[in-house]
Design a protein that fits this description.
mainly beta, globular, outer membrane lipoprotein receptor (LolB), chain A
Length: 210
């Protein structure tokens, strides 16, 4: 199961930034499928400030086989956004017992921070590798929020109608290539509907509930 564990972790980190709303809390739930079979659940709790900036994000997910929990992923993030740009991030990720403590601040020309006590610098044009944020669709340089790894990507767009629970959903489909291979579907409100990622010969898909 080690390759499946890695697949789930990579996928969940990619889902760790959020869209904006004003002065409220939001819970979102979804199902995780591995190679076409339902294998787990994911739950996000997002809290926003009065000005619409993200105050905190908590992510919990589990993978079960025959009713036995075999993998846990927990992530707690505190993010500050201004004008559509990430300005500060503090996070802690527990990936099956391995801890990643991360911090990042936006400066005049770059991000500066630390990962498990080691200094990290990132260019300010890099964007979080998060399919929650619709702005990701036209960003050529991404970074993940667990390891701060930089990834050069290209994105292609097409229209696609998904069938979800016998219901037709018109979506925009975005295929990411280069250092990050993934596909994301957004509805007419630019809300994430579905996300797919391939790694270690497994297809992992997260489908969000209504």
């Amino acid at each position: 199961m080690s390759s499946v564990h890695m697949t789930l972790a990579v996928l969940l980190v990619a889902l760790s930034t959020v869209v904006h709303a004003a002065g409220r809390s939001e819970n979102r739930f979804g199902s995780i499928y591995i190679d076409g079979k339902k294998a787990g659940q994911i739950h996000y709790t997002i809290e926003y400030g009065d000005n619409g900036d993200v105050e905190s994000l908590k992510t919990n997910a589990s993978l079960s086989i025959l009713g036995v929990k075999v993998y846990n992923f927990e992530q707690s993030l505190h993010e500050e956004w201004r004008g559509g740009q990430l300005h500060e991030l503090r996070g802690r990720t527990d990936d099956a017992g391995k801890i990643y403590d991360a911090s990042l601040q936006r400066g005049p020309a770059q991000y500066s921070g630390a990962l498990n006590g080691k200094p990290v610098d990132l260019p300010d044009r890099a964007f979080p590798a998060s399919v929650w944020h619709y702005a990701i669709v036209d960003r050529p340089l991404l970074f993940d929020l667990k390891l701060f790894k930089l990834m050069n990507v290209k994105t292609s767009r097409s229209g696609e109608t998904l069938t979800i629970d016998k219901r037709k959903v018109a979506t925009e489909r975005f295929d990411f290539s280069g250092d990050w291979i993934a596909t994301a579907w957004f509805d007419s409100k630019r809300q994430l509907v579905q996300f797919r990622h391939h790694i270690d010969n497994h297809e992992v898909l997260v489908r969000l509930d209504d």
